[in-house]
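Continued from yesterday's entry.
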Amino acid sequence: MLTQIINGQILTPQGWLNEGSVLISDGKILEVTNSDLAVIGAKVVDAKGMYIVPGFVAMNVHGGGGHDFKECTEEAFRTAVSAHLKHGATTIFPTLSSSPIETIYKAVSICENLMAEKNSPVLGLHVEGPYLNAKMAGPLYEVKNPDPEEYVTLLEKTNCIKRWDISPELPGAHDFARYLTSKGILPAITHTEAEFGDIKAAYAAGFTHAAQFYNAMPGFHKRREYKYEGTVESVYLIDDMTVEVIADGKHLPGTILRLVYKLKGVERTCLVTDALSFAASDIKPGDGSPVIIEDGVCKVADHSSLAGSIATMDVLVRTMVQKANVPLADAVRMASETPARMMGVLGRTGTLQRGKDADIIIMDRNLAIRAVWSMGHLVEEANTLF
């Protein structure tokens, strides 16, 4: 069926198109045109002057809808994916937090099955840990040093893992990054104490991306009478190193989000939720849980640190616009185009262009989601436009 979306502001790679339409056919974008004249035989969707933007790419998300991907059940994966899809995440790389190798194998199996389905929004798995610095990982993580026998054996059996985050200062971390790069997998630094020399060496080994920028990593600091750059400043100093920020307005204030945008720019900054199972859900932590929900964010129960967000991708865009004063077009690009490029899927999604997947969102003037298409399929639960 041919669908034509008209009467909206369309975000294209060249900028906003104020009078035009998007044609969808067989799950693909047939054309983005500057004409909004009705096409014969098409189902016409009137965007009523709202924003028509590319679907978001969720590249760091632990769960949602009451389920965590770490549960490693098909129900957990499908529920969490569906919950975020309704909030505009038309491409999802489920994140598996620090886990034993047996759990990673289970997640791989489920992820491979979902990826094999027609029109699946799941395009790969994101693994975090267990190769983490114990001092920076916190009590909720299982940690160890990189084990080549373990990760090589796994990665020779699957192609579904697209990104893996570890602490770059661990013994064997550079060999790990070089191996990931040889397999086309994105290595990222996380939960680290690395200073400039460590980051420079890690970047040379293949660590080109900094996960959860500013979180679980030191900034400028002092030891005795001397001062040292932290991971944050080190990443800024390496121009081509990319970053992601948890832009829920809780993990980082608007001023810091603005600073990252200003220094790293749209093409090297992406927005991530780092969402836990409580995102897009009415479910709350039970009695005795190690985490609590308070002030719109998930915290360790003893208030020692944040534990993760309960945000969805649309929240990130609103936060960047409303709290960091970033232009809407740039905020959307950091949630769609930039992560699509980082994860190697820009050829099929991330921008509204002919031939790409029909991953499309309509947002109203308050930047609330009004409609979502995933590969041309209207996500009914998100549809309040018609």
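--- second protein ---
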Amino acid sequence: MERVSTGIPGMDKILNGGIPRRNIVLLAGGPGTGKSIFGQQFLYDGLLKGENGIFVALEEHPVQVRVNMAQFGWEVKPFEAEGKFAVVDAFTGGIGEAAKRERFVVKTPDDVQNLVDVVRMAIKEVGAERVVIDSVTTLYITKPMIARNVVMQLKKVLSGLGSTSILVSQVSVTERGFGGPGVEHAADGIIRLDLDEINGSLHRSLIVWKMRGTSHSMHRHPFDITDKGIIVHPQKVLTVKQREER
């Protein structure tokens, strides 16, 4: 089994060596759990290893995405200049001066087919081996019943072109699922990030719910967000009380 390193200290150990190549991983979590950071760290690690990548921005301006990555020391502009990395603008609809300078723009972000076509073009032109879409929730939040279909369409393109991909999925703090009916069945892997209050303090943790093609830890592990990115603690296990639906 060929694996792709996440580039996140401690994470590969939980996955017994990394994410199986071509897997589509659903990265689910509530606000403030570090989903975008996880995805961006995964992409930047790939660039350092010679694996080209694209970041599909559905919820943030592409300029802000680059600023956010630079805060962790992940400067992507040199890789963009070399054609090894690209941000797909699925946020602005091409409106604004900055948007006009973007290489890949989804004119109608809520049109799933339009998005899929632009993502396909970007992967081919960049030769992307790693892809992060942040977030797929934006695509089906107004039409929850098409959630699984959206993920399946993306999966055919991403896996078919040989990419190992992370699809960010937003859930509410009290939600126990992964975002969207049936989405979990369409993904090859699911990693859930959580932020829980324990004894008056907030603690971040993650758990791998499933990962096709590999065994993985069945425990919940704490992690930290540092100025260098996410660090997972595979040797530690965090116990939280069962969440109650509200």
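Residues 112-126 form the longest helix (15 residues). The chain has one domain: 3-232. Will compare against the first tomorrow.
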